Amino acid sequence: MSQKNTLPSFTPILIVGAGPAGATASLTLSHLGMEHLIIDKATFPRDKICGDGLDLKIPRIFKHLNRPEWTEELLNTPDIFLPAWGVRMVAPNGRATDNIYTPPADTKAYPPFVTAKRQDFDNFLVNKIASPYADLRTDASLEALRRTPQGWEADILYQNQLQTVACQLLMAADGDHSTILRHLQQRKIDRVHYASSVRVYYKNVAGLHPQNLIEFHFRKELPMGYFWIFPLPNGCANVGLGIQSRIAAERDVNLRAVLDKLLYHTPDISPRFEQAQALEPVKGWGIPLASRRRNCVGDNYMLLGDAASLVNPLNGEGIGTAMLSGYIAAHYAQKAIQRNNFTAQTLAGYEQDMSLRLQDEVKAYNMALRFDHKRWYFPTLNTLFALNIPNRWMKKSMHQWHNTAFEQEIKLRFLNQ
Questions:
Q1: CA dist 104 → 60, 82, 210, 329, 402 (Å)
Q2: Where does the chain cross the membrane (predicted)?
Q3: Domain of 352: which CATH number?
Q4: Mean pLDDT for each 10-residue chunk of the chain (417 residues)?
Q5: What is the number of domains present in the chain?
Q6: Which of 11, 15, 131, 198 could form a disulfide with 255 if both were Cys (CB 3.0 to 4.6 A apart)?
Q7: Is 41 within a domain?
Q8: Is 215 part of a structural domain of the chain?
Q9: Could you give the 3-state DSSP secondary structure of residue 253?
């Protein structure tokens, strides 16, 4: 991290936001030998409201950066990162299934999930950024943007001074409330493709599985949503719920009230919280789903992570997808620099690559929207659980995810076009 009081007057690439998407873009650019400036308005470590689940995209990306030791570091820091060896899913009628991953005997055991507070995981990534190619500045706030013939001029408040940096390519990784999205007039919330969520950290929640299974509870109070309990290190847990924003608005759902009811006035859940202690007030946030596509590229810019609306619409997972977007975007940024061509056409392959990776989830979510959730949602879920379909699907998927993470290359299908 640079300790200079002044920012460079020019950088080929400016990354705004050092969360998982921006940090991974920076790590990948450094891996490719590309100079860049990365800024974030916060000072790390800092809290970030999230479900705190990390999937196998993370070790896959570390492997592609030739940094497999970072995966080992995750596994060997139990006070920050907790291995979760599977999933507990609970149907609306209360039927529960535990899906525990058993790795093949001839492979190294790696859990299908790891949990960590975003405060810790994001700090972990930021601390890896240092390289001769990366200039990281925190507590640096983007205040204004202007188009130029060569790209952009960015006014950045840093060290109590408003400083101007010119760049050829802008990589927006500053989240759902992105300053850059607002400048581009792209931040328009469609409640059908947006989720509302609340979270609170607890300590001493009863009934957690000894193998730290992450829990998804599909409740009648939450159509097109779920209640979760994710174990965390040191006896803590991330507890929360999420629901499609349109349904929340139509039914006037108060998420905090629903969470309170589940935790303290529900026979099957409340006993688990009788001795638990809340470690913070309930916090809320919005989730931009990938089912509503944004224009992720344009002349001299790319959108990453939540700024690009890339959250899996079926399960709300966004960290791994954000990191994947950063990894892929960095390769298209390298292409633009090498060709000295920053047009939307040059960068378009990045959007195509990301859309391809999320197309199955988006299709399934959009198909679900065609049905009346008031009539079909809960009966269908109960039927699926009765037929053991989620259990069989999860067991098969966990093995596929493991194979993908450690055996398959991240293909950039449109990079050479």
A1: 18, 21, 21, 33, 10
A2: none
A3: 3.50.50.60
A4: 80 99 99 98 95 96 97 95 97 93 80 97 98 98 97 98 98 94 86 94 98 96 94 98 94 95 96 98 95 90 96 94 98 98 97 94 86 76 90 91 91 88
A5: 1
A6: 198
A7: yes
A8: no
A9: coil
